[in-house]
Each structure stands twice: as structure tokens, then as C-alpha cells.
Amino acid sequence: MTSALILVTAHVVTAVRGVWQSTDPVVKQRIYFANHSSHGDFVLVWTVLPSHLRAQTRPVAGADYWLGSQLKQFIGQSVFNAVLIDRNPETRQADPVEQMAEALDANDSLILFPEGTRNTTEDILLPFKAGLFNLAIARPHVDLVPVWIDNLNRVMPKGALLPIPLICTVTFGDTLHIEEDEDKEAFLNRAEKALLDLAPGHEVAETAS
Amino acid sequence: MNGDVLILLTAVIGILFVASTVGFVLRLRASDTGPGSAIENLNARINAWWVMVIVMAIAFVAGKTGVVILFAICSFAALREFLTLTNTKTADYWALAAAVFVVLPVQYLSVGMNWYGFYSIFIPVYAFLLMPIISALRGDTKDFLIRVAEAQWALMICVFCVSHVPALLSLNIPGYEGRNLFLIFFLVVVVQSSDVLQYVWGKLLGRRKIAPKLSPSKTLEGLLGGVLSASLLGAALFWITPFSIWQAAALSLVITLMGFFGGLVMSAIKRDRGVKDWGHLISGHGGFIDRLDSVIFSAPIFFHIVRFYWDVH
What we know:
Chain A contains 10 helices and 7 strands. Chain A is of the alpha/beta class. Chain A has one domain (2-208): Glycerol-3-phosphate (1)-acyltransferase (3-Layer(aba) Sandwich), CATH 3.40.1130. In chain A, strands 1-7-6-2-5-3-4 form a 7-stranded mixed β-sheet, with helices on both faces. Chain B has 10 helices and no strands. Classes of the chains: A alpha/beta, B mainly alpha.
């Protein structure tokens, strides 16, 4: 019921469309890794997944935000069944990579934001944190799928009460895997590039600057 | 009146039925029927027409409220497409939120209340002056004029112009009471069939490109054939309007020409922003603005000509 309401709202506000550019929505365990500029990011990815994949796909989210209020807690845990990780290394009791690996072992797919935090800067993408690399090492057989979410940062800018209706797209790129002996920097660079290649107008922006 | 509705409905469904049959036969005979082929696009367009006709018919049955709500939804979808292509920034958030959540509903509410003195000036006076004030208060001056102008144009095109279609229901024409829905039918059918007929004539005879930079598929032959044949259709529909046959033909000529040039203007915006279509929601057609562009440019002119010469106010 709540999830249906969230789906309808996402469609009304963003008319979101999934573009399966170099991969198909097949039944296969995957780690979708996406750019992160809004709290609604995983909702959009989740919305464009076919319903049979949706049920088996869990977003990975920061516990500090999603346990922040009862409503968020309900949405994060009961509706999306999020893997909530503590982003503060000092206080955390569980290793985030282990938590994610556990979810994968239970045959679920994950939606992950490797920038680690919301990008509120002018930069198109923040440097990836180590999490994606560590997870790829821990479960090397799982497909990694880059996912570019376009325009949602304009729908809900920081401090916004109501969403501005704008058309959003979610573009799925080609699957990648960690290669043998690939070090952290090389892998994260490759993953960042795979994601940036999906950003519309990115090549233009590169040549312009 | 009910007899007239039955005749028109039968005619529209008959035409769509013929179109679907032709599309079906073409697909059986064509060699290239994959996704993205011309035949598939044609069939997607025809199917979308069925949906659009059914939705319009339901709105007409629901009467004035239904029509006002339908066009308010069209405005919302169009605004969503238009704002996507603008340069508006975080500093414009409150201005844009006001445009969507205040200006749009208030405009349609006043159209529904027949409040001509308000809905004809609310956007060009109040919205146009208050929105830049809201944006300016945030202090971000970068591209200010561009941002303000884009937001204003979005409202003008997507809300103000579109709302003049249901506004036709508030005209008070002696001897035509209770039949204003036919004015909407006349406007939409003449303008939309002009679009289709321009396409058909262009495919059949098109040689001289009329605006190669803006819209390479538009030809002089398509324009003349489409506008003239749609005007003939408009003249043939005079019996559902308060116009004489010659007046119906002349008005048809005006609105089809406005529709044609509206399409050109909206193409220029798409070219500037490097997109092919405004959106993707109407299969085969593109976005709402792709389908509505000709109505957008013809509705206010049609409204004011009819109001000036026929309405008692």
C-alpha cells in the first residue's frame, strides 16, 4: 500500500523512465551502484525495476538518516527493507561490507551509492569510497551495474518542502566485475568512469572545461 | 445535441478504425517491422490516438469539470516537460514551486469559475511580476534574466495558453447555449487533423523544405496541403459551431496556421536544447508538448476571436 503510493508519487512527479542502455533487466543477482544527490535516489532506481526484481532488491542506506524519525524508519525498513549501515567508523558495531555481503548471500540484489554521501557540490560525481571495492573483493561473482540517476537533484534541492515536477531518467550501463590483481585505485577509477559515461552531456562538459 | 454527438463520435471512431486497419495491413506487408521502424511508429501513434480520443470523450461526458481537470493535467505534464529543459537553479525553487502548486491550480480554478477578468490576466500580470521577485530575494544573479524568462515562458506556454481550451466553455454565445463543448471539439479536431494532414501531404508530395534548420520534415507542399484540407474539414464542421460555413473556414485557416507556426517555435526550443522530443509519455508522439504544440498556439487566438465577434459580455 505504502509502496504503491510511493511508486505513483515517483511517476507523477518525475515521469521516470528506466533506460536499459547496455544491459537488460534480467533475474540475476546484482549490485546497482548509482550517483547520489537526493534522498529519493534509491526510490527512483527501485521504481524503474520490474516488480519481480524490485522485491529482491535492497537499498544500502545510512542508518543515521533512515533511523532519524519514525516515518523514515518505517519507510526505510518496512517498505524498502534497506540494509542500514552506520557510517561512523567510531561507533559502529557491524562492518558495513559484511552487512552487505550477508544480504548478497541471502540472494538479494543491492542498490549502493559508492560516493558514501549525498553529493551537494557542483561536481558531477564525488570520489568513490572504498566500500564498493571491498564488496567486489568479498563477492567477486556478483554483477556490478552502473546506474546514472539524472535530474532528481533538481526535483528536490536541499531544504525543499515540495518536489518540483521534472522528468528524470535512470540509465543502466554495462555490467562490470573486479579483475584479478586489480588494485583499489584502478578498480574504483574504472567504476567511476563506467558511471560517468552514462551521464548525459558529460562528454560535452569535459571538452568545454 | 445528442444526435450531433453521436454523429461526431461515430465519425471519429470510424476514422480511427480505418487508420488502425491501414496500420495493420501495412505491418503485414512491410519487410521492416522491428521496433523503431516507420510502421511501428505509425501504429504506436494510432494507438495513442485511440487513448487520447477515449480520454477526451470521458472528459466530455463528465462535462465542464471533467474538461477543466483534463486540461489542468495536460498543463501539469507539459510544465514538467518544459521545466526539465530550463536552466532554473536552486535559487528559483520557491518561484517554481509556486508556479506548479499555486499558479496552475488557481488558473484552472478561475477558468472553472468563468472568471474571465482574472484568468486572462493572472499569469501575465501577477505571476510574471511575483515570480522574479521570489527568485531575486535569494540573491543569486547568475543568468537571472535567462532563468526568469524561461520560467515565465514555461507558464505562458504550458498553463496560460493550454487553459484557453477549457476557457471556451465560459463563452456566452446567444443561441448556442449548452453547446460550447463543440467549440473545443472544433478547435482540437481541426488543429490536430491539420498536423496529421501536413504529415500525410508532406510524405506524398513534399519537396521544398520550409524550415530546414528547425524541422527538416516540414515542407511547403505539406503545409499547403495540410492547412487547406484541414480548413475544408473545419468548414464542413460549421454545423456544430455558431459560425457560418465561410467563417468556419476562415477560423480554421487561422488556427491551422497558428498551429503550424507553434510547431516551428517549439521545434526551435528543442533544437536549442538538443533534444528530439519533449518527453516520452505518449508512445510514438513523444511528450505532451509534442502533441499539444499546435493547440497551444491556436487556442488563445481562437478564444479571443470568438469572444470578440460572437460572445456577449
